[in-house]
Amino acid sequence: MDLVWSGSRQALALLADSDREIWGILRLSLQVSGCATLISLALGVPAGAVLALARFPGRGLLVSMVNTGMGLPPVVVGLFVTLLLWRGGPFGDLEILYTPAAIVIAQAVLAAPIVTGITLAAVGQVPREFRLQLLALGASRVQMVWLVLREARLPMLAAVMAGFGGIISEIGASMMVGGNIKGQTRTLTTAMVLETGKGNFEIAIALALLLLVLIFLVNWLLTAIQQRHAR
After folding, report:
1. Are 103 and 189 in contact (CB under 8 A)?
2. Structural domain span for residue 46
3. Number of domains comprising the chain
4. What is the pTM of this model?
5. Is the separation of the CB atoms in 149 and 49 below 8 Å?
6. What is the CATH number of the domain that holds 46?
7. Cα 11 from Cα 19, distance rounded (Å)
8. Contact (CB, 8 A) for 53 and 123
């Protein structure tokens, strides 16, 4: 316990002194995870809406794949993204392996099924009669889908929280495709593993505190929005 308290005091001192390296790691983590969350929303919300509203052959298989994807191990995603971006891989010419862009891709792959699955569940809860009434009143299919998404917007905020929370705290994929390069691809989680291995517990605790506060603030903000609109 003495190690924990001592490390916590030193961690707070580091944060109070505005350690440039720690805040740089925080900034990079926010950038890559924020971009990955936006990409996953752009892909997952339309996909979830289509799976919830449309009926076509193979839909059940796609839903099962989405549900499976919600539990994808990060190291598996990291492996496949690495193979795709490797010099001899299909996208090796892009030369983005071990860059922040590679981390964004891996994290977006992790978050997209989560966003798709939650959107599918949220849109599926909107009564079928509501959709039929919109069409009967003259709404086009595009307008109907838009209004249904607006109706389901509060449960869909959970997709944002789950997607961001899942990728900001993962380590396997980020480590594999980013390489944990100082000043370039080192995120909060990969830096924590490195500093713990080196015995720098005060730095690791400082990073852990930043990560916990960051996740709390994002979820607090989205929950406040959700509750305000619910009222």
Report:
1. no
2. 2-230
3. 1
4. 0.87
5. yes
6. 1.10.3720.10
7. 10
8. yes
